[in-house]
Amino acid sequence: MLFVPFVANFPLLLLGTMLTRKDLLGIQDLSHEEILEILDTAGSFQEVSTRPIKKVPTLRGKTVINLFFEASTRTRTSFEIAGKRLSADVVNVSSATSSVSKGETLIDTARTLDAMAADCVVVRHSASGAPHTLAKLTKASIVNGGDGAHEHPTQALLDAFTIRERKGRLNDLKVAIIGDVSHSRVARSNTHLLTKFGSHVWLCSTPTLMPAAIEKIVCENGEFLHITNSMDEAVRDADVIMMLRVQFERMSESFFPSVREYFRYYGLSRERAEGAKADVIIMHPGPINRGVEIATDVADGPYSVILAQVSAGVAVRMAILYLLLGG
Amino acid sequence: MDLLVKNGRVVDPAQKIDTVTDVVIRGGKVRSIGAANISDIPVFDAAGLIVAPGFFDMHVHLREPGTEEAETIESGGCAAVAGGFTAVAAMPNTKPPNDNPSITRHIVSEARRSSPARVFPIGAITKEQKGETLAEIGEMFEAGISGISDDGMPVMDARLFRRALEYARLFDMPVIQHCEDLHLSTAGVMHEGMYSTRLGLKGIPAAAEEIMVSRDLILAEMTRGKYHAAHLSTRRAVEMVRQAKACGLRVSAEGTPHHFTLTDAAVADYDTNAKMNPPLRSAGDVAALVEGIQDGTIDAIASDHAPHHINLKMLEFDRAPFGITGLETAVGLALTKLQVPVARLIELFSTNPQKIMKVPSWGLFQGSDADLTILDLNRAWAFDVNRSRSRSRNSPFHGWRLKGKAVATIVGGKVVYEDRP
C-alpha cells in the first residue's frame, strides 16, 4: 500500500473498485460497469488539473512508458501529462529514437521494457492487434493508445466523458460519426461504446470508405447501429456530430477523387450542421483538417467541444492509469 | 525391399478393390494382392487397418534451397511420411526459385539423398516467378518437374497465362494457379468480412479469388490446357469449377484442411497461425468447400504446407508471413471433419493427385512402386506441434484432438514411418 500524504486534499481515496483487468486493449470487451467506473473516476480527477499545483502523489514510484510506433502529439502528450499529474515516472519512447529502427522486433522491445520493471506501457502502433500481442507477453499493464484501424479506447472514453458532461447521459442520443470509417479506430471504439449504452450511432461515409459488413461490427445492441451514405440523413436531429479526420496519404488509393469533392459531400459546413438539433455538440478527435472535413467557422464555433475533448483526455487517462496501477 | 502386408483392408478406388487380404511386396514393387502364405519375408500386420495407395500431398513448400531455417527437403520429407504421405509435390518458390533445370536437378538429387518421401518438384511458370516471361518449362520437365506453378504469385497477365496453358500441353503437365487478383487483394491480410472490419485488418475479398478462377476457366476452355486451381477457398469459386467440369473442361481443383476446418473467426485474437493466403473464409464458404469435396468438384486435398520460422510468425499480424504447416495434420483433419467414405478419401489423397500431376502412378497395381499408406480410422490422438518433424511450428492445430490417423507409411516396400501403440 502506497503511503499517501495530503489526504485531505485528495478525494480519490474514497473511490472503490480498481479495474480487475491487467490491460486496457479495447472498448469491445469492456463492461458497462468498467466504463462508468473510468468515467466517474475521471470526473474526480478533473479538479486536479485546475489546481495551481497540478499534481497528486497517487502513482509515485510507478513507471509508465509511452511506446509510440506511430506519430502522435496529442495522445502521447495527454498520457504524459496524465502520468505526471499522478506523480508516475513517465518515459517516452518513439520509434524514431528506439532500437525499433535498428530492426528490433516489437516483442523484444516490449520484453526489454518489461525487464526494466515498467508498470504500464502505453502502445500506439500502425498494426492492428499489436497491443494484444504485447499484452500476452508482458507483466506490465498494456494500454492501447491506438492500434491500426482497430481500436482507440481512450479516445472513445474521453469522447464519452465529454458527451456525458454536455448531455447528461450516454443513452438515447443520436450520434453521427462521419468520414473515413474504414480506416478509423476512433469510429470503431466510439461505435462499440455508444451502442453499448443504448445511443443510436449513425456511421456515414462514401461507399468507398465504408468497410465490409460494418453493420455487424457490434456484438450486442446491433439495432442501435445505422449506416448511411447521406450526410444530411446522418446529421438530421443529431445530438452529437463526430467528424473523422481525412487521411491525405489515402488519396493515392482513389477512395475519393479530390479534397474539394470530398468536402462537398462529407464536409461539415455551417449550413449542413443546421440540420442537427439546436443544442448539437460537434466533436473531432484531432488533428483537424480545416476546410477538408470541417469548416473553420464550425470548428471554432459555439457548438464545437473539440478543446473540451482534449481537456477530458487528461482526466480520463489519469483515471485509466490510476485504476490499472493504483491498487 | 520385401514385405508382406497382412490381413489389412485393402482399398484402391482406382481398381475398385475393397477387401481384407494381403499385399506381397518384392524388390520394392507390388507382386500380388490376395491371400498369401509366405514366410521368407518380413511381415507387417495390418489387421484392423486400411491399406491404401500412398498418399500424395500435391502442394507443399519445402523451403530448400534458400530458407533452410524453416524447412529442408529432409525435414519436410520426414514430416510428410509422419503425416502418411509417401510423396509430395514441392512448389517452386524457393530462393532462388525453381525456374531452371539446375535447381530442379538439385531438388531431385537432394530428395533422393535425404527424404524418406518421394519429392516431385513443380517448376515455375515464369522466370523468377515475376509473371513476365515463360521459364524453361521443357528443360525443367526433362530434369524432373511434374507440373508448373507460380504459387504465391498469381500470373496476372492473361496473355502470358494463355501461353503457359498452351505450352504445357506439350508435356501434359498441369498449370497450377494460385487464384488471386492482386489488384483487388492489395495489402490484405485476412478474409474481408465482419471479422476484418471488427479487427481493423485489411481484407482480401472473396472476389479476388473468384475473378481469377473465372478468367482462368475461360482461358482453359479456349486453350484446352490442363488447368488446376490450387487451394480453393470460396463458395463461388467452387461453384464455377463445378460448372466448368459439367461443361467437360480439363480442370481440377484442390482444397486444404484448414479451409474446410476453420473460419475467419480463428483470427479473432490476432493469431498469426491463422494467417494464410488464401485466407480463412466465412462459414458459408467452408460449407461450400465441404460440399465440393463430397460431390467430387474438388479433386484433391492438399495441405499447402508452408513452414515459417517462429521469428517471422512472432511479428505483428500485418507483418507476419502467410502460411501454416499441414503435412502432419491433413489426414487426421480430413478423417475427423469430413463425412466421406474411405474410398473417396483415398481418391482425394492419392488417386486424383496422381492423375492430375505428371507422375508415374504407384500404389496397389501389380508391378507398381509399393508406396502405401496405412490408416487406423479409429485411432484417437492429439496433435502436439512441439513433436512435429517439421523444422517450423506454425500450426493452428496444436492440441487438437483428432480421430483417425496414418499409422504407417511405406515407400518402395520399406516402412519409413510407424506409429503403433
Explain what the structure shows.
The complex is a heterodimer of chains A (327) and B (421). With 327 residues, chain A is of the alpha/beta class. Helices cover 34% and strands 14% of the residues of chain A. Chain A is built from eleven helices and nine strands. Chain A has a five-stranded parallel beta sheet. Chain A has a four-stranded parallel beta sheet with strand order 2-1-3-4. In chain A, helix 6 (185-196) links the parallel strand 5 and strand 6. In chain A, helix 1 (32-45) packs across helix 11 (306-325). The longest helix of chain A is centred in the C-terminal third of the chain and has 20 residues, at 306-325. With 421 residues, chain B is α/β, with parallel strands linked by helices. Chain B folds into two domains: 3-50 and 369-418, Urease, subunit C, domain 1, CATH 2.30.40.10; 55-356, Metal-dependent hydrolases (TIM Barrel). Chain B is built from 13 helices and 18 strands. In chain B, the strands form four sheets. In chain B, strands 1, 2, 3, 4, 5, 16, 17 and 18 form an eight-stranded mixed beta sheet that branches. In chain B, strands 9-10-13-14-15 form a five-stranded parallel beta sheet. In chain B, helix 2 links the parallel strand 7 (85-90) and strand 8. In chain B, helix 2 runs parallel beside helix 3. Chain B is globular and about 65 Å long. The two termini of chain B are 25 Å apart. The chains are: A alpha/beta (327), B alpha/beta (421).
